[in-house]
Amino acid sequence: MYMNVDEAVAALSSNDKRILKCLSDNSKYAGDIALEIQLDKASVLSSSRKLLEFGLVTINNEVSMVYTLTDIGRGYLSTGLPELIITRKLVEKGNVSLSDASKLGLEKEELNASIGLLRKQGIVELKAGTLIYAGKGAENIESKSRLLLEINHGEVPADTESINEFLRRKLIVANENIKESLKITSLGTSVLRSKEFDKEVVDKLTSDIIKNWKGIAFRRYSLNARIPTPVYGKKHITKQFIKMLRENLTAMGFEEMQSNYAEASFWNFDVMLFKQDHPDRDIQDTVYLDGRVNNLPPELLSKVKNVYENGFKRNSKDFSVGYRMPFDEKKSRVLIMRAHTTATTFRYFYDKISKNKDKPARYFSISKVFRNETLDPTHLPEFYQIEGIVYDDGLTVSDLKSYITEFYKRMGIDKIRIKPTYNPYTEPSLEIQAFSPKLNRWLEVGNSGMFRPETLEPFGIKKNIIAWGFALERPLSLLLATNDLRLIYGAFSDLDLLREIEYARLSRKL
Ligand code: PHE
Questions:
Q1: What's the predicted TM-score (pTM) here?
Q2: Which segments in the chain show pLDDT lower than 50?
Q3: Alpha carbon 314 to chain centroid distance?
């Protein structure tokens, strides 16, 4: 990048300047600079990128190997290598019977391997069950054994043959060590000698400085600096994926539901007859908000309360005897971040299906849900669910299975299977697993079932309703061949990956 001396001086931070000064006319390792000017190595490295970009230094990477002992290697530190134990005995006795050798405290395999090695090197002969010392070669084994100690002290021995042998025997592992050395350029030297170099400039803004900025010299921003900027914006991979799913579900005759992220506990839990002290309602699992909801439909609330407490009968058959415990309306009004999109499904029972009971209906939603979880590679505190419901005459579990199969087939997933599970609001409840050829195993990808008649009773719905809730990020991360959801979202996301990937170009195999 083109920079003149004045521009460069004005754009340097105080750390950049300290590094340049410390280089004066030598070349130095980044690690040594860090020690010398008492700055952490990461800051030295990030400054050095900038100095390089400005043309003030050149950077040379020296790659070397470092070796570290494995657990096996470390185990030999106090005893010496197994072949050393045998050799020492041989030097002491001249010869050792195999049965005596087996009492030296070595594992059988270690013993055999060591004898093999010593024979191959001509240090030992095996005759009629006795090991005979050849009279020379013990010193080689002694020095090889010492190498292990040296490696343990961080030295890199010159004896590559032994190093290779240790690597083969898995006594050590090798890692690359990259040492960056910085050298000042002639432009760098001019910058260092310029009049302005030692002038104090402020390079970190504080609220006090912003209040009182007059007369302060600030570090200049270089508007010429070349930074890699993507030349276009694009849809995030999740959005691309959702678009495809939405098209598929629409083609399957489903209509999208509209919904809110914040919901009354009533819609998220009570209508589904979650017990009011159910562990899912715990603060550990659910995100609570401060608000209270006062506009719950009073008639529905009292019907849900009645089924919750007393169960219900239809045609004099007991479907449920209820929890036989008081239902607390106060708990229904507590505002939370929706923990599953089934909350929206129940709103649609109320707003749509119960008002038009003769009309078959198919709805879906692809929307976010929230759980009070710590972020890790496989858990997100907010994630998408793909919910679907079908309302019609005489629906059965086999209908549910064919919808699910069709949905996944359109996503490119051919092998699915179902397994019984439990939800308070569906019976039967079915877990859905998809087979991943990439991982060569079955993965849980969703949950589904047929709503219990007692959950539909307060809505006056008598026909069967089948439904599912599928995971979205999980199959997506598999399609992307990553096991870490954090690469897709948020502060840890891999921007290069996100810029690169196009849903349409992904192989459609989990
Ligand atoms: N709500 C369930 C979940 O969050 C999914 C589901 C939806 C199960 C509809 C059955 C019926 O896992």
A1: 0.60
A2: none
A3: 49
